[in-house]
Amino acid sequence: MTRRPPQPPRSVCFDVPDGHGVIEVIGDEGGSLLLLAGEPVVLEVNDGCGSLGWLAARAGTGGPGLSEVKYLTEWLGAPGLVPDPLTGRAGPPDPQCLRPLLSLLAPGRYVMSAGLAPHDLRVVRPRALQVQSWYADEELALVTSDAWPPRDHRAVRGYVDRIRAGGGLPALVALFPTAGSSVGHLLDGHHKLAAYEHAGARPLVIRLAPLELRPFRRDDLDRARAAFSDGAPRPQGDALGRLFSSVRTESA
């Protein structure tokens, strides 16, 4: 009898004791805030409207962009992760392979897993001082944190060729507020994600999440309001107002 290969481990935990805190996520499965260099950049939250309606917004154009702080590695272009043909899961990589990127995270303990995205993946593109809304009827939504669609078409075509060739799959890296969250912030892999869409294939996603919950504090929400506001009066009940009012905070 032919034995099936052992199932890959679901996740691996690792510590970032000396992280620079350039990239940080706070919140929970109901919503999260992505901070770059300490500044609020992208906010996503379930506003409780409709069938699990979600909103995402990006801070003003003066905020830092991910391209200014992220560290790209050639390894992510072909990390050698092989998804299980039945479950789509792949064994998580050795955290040391991602150390240049992980060193940008806030210090703490994280959990990492890897696998193919579900078929009903949604890509959410928040724009500066605007709100993007969608219904969370998908298994996974990735909120872009860089230009979308990506501008380097040659890079996208190169990844399309690699995906269609059937060799080592390129990997995306997304940061989630919790390991069980269905909405994550895409840190690296915008060109790869576009290539997967062109190729009609499910992307390989490396998921990162803090092991311990980092809840919103009132001062976090105040900073987010300042970053996302253009100073103009807004009508009561507008999308941005619903986004802020839906954030659950703890006193600070």
Query: Into which percent range does the helicity of residues fall?
Result: 10-25%
The helix/strand order is EEEEEEHEEEEHEEHEEHHE
How many individual β-strands?
15
Mean pLDDT comes to 86
Shape call: globular
pLDDT below 50 for ≥5 consecutive residues: which ranges? 1-5
Number of H- or I-type helical stretches: 5
Whole-number radius of gyration?
18 Å
> How does the helix and strand content classify structurally?
alpha/beta
Measured between the Cα atoms of the first and last residue, the distance is: 61 Å
Largest sheet: 8 strands, mixed
Structural notes for this entry:
By secondary structure, the chain is an alpha/beta fold. The protein has helices at about 100, 155-165, 190-200, 220-230, 240-245, and strands spanning about 10-15, 25-30, 30-35, 40-45, 55-60, 90, 110-115, 120-125, 130-135, 140-145, 170-175, 185-190, 205-210, 215, 250. Helix 2 packs across helix 3 (about 190-200).
Would you summarize the structure shown here?
Helices cover 18% and strands 31% of the residues. The chain is α/β, with parallel strands linked by helices. The longest helix is centred in the middle third of the chain and has 13 residues, at 153-165.
Break the fold down into its secondary structure elements and pairings.
Elements: E1 12-16, E2 23-28, E3 31-36, E4 39-46, E5 53-58, E6 89-90, H1 99-102, E7 108-116, E8 121-124, E9 131-135, E10 140-143, H2 153-165, E11 171-175, E12 183-188, H3 190-199, E13 204-210, E14 216-217, H4 218-228, H5 239-246, E15 249-250
Parallel strand pairs: 8-10, 10-12, 11-13, 14-15
Antiparallel strand pairs: 1-7, 2-3, 3-4, 4-5, 5-9, 6-7, 7-13, 11-12
Helix pairs in contact: 2-3
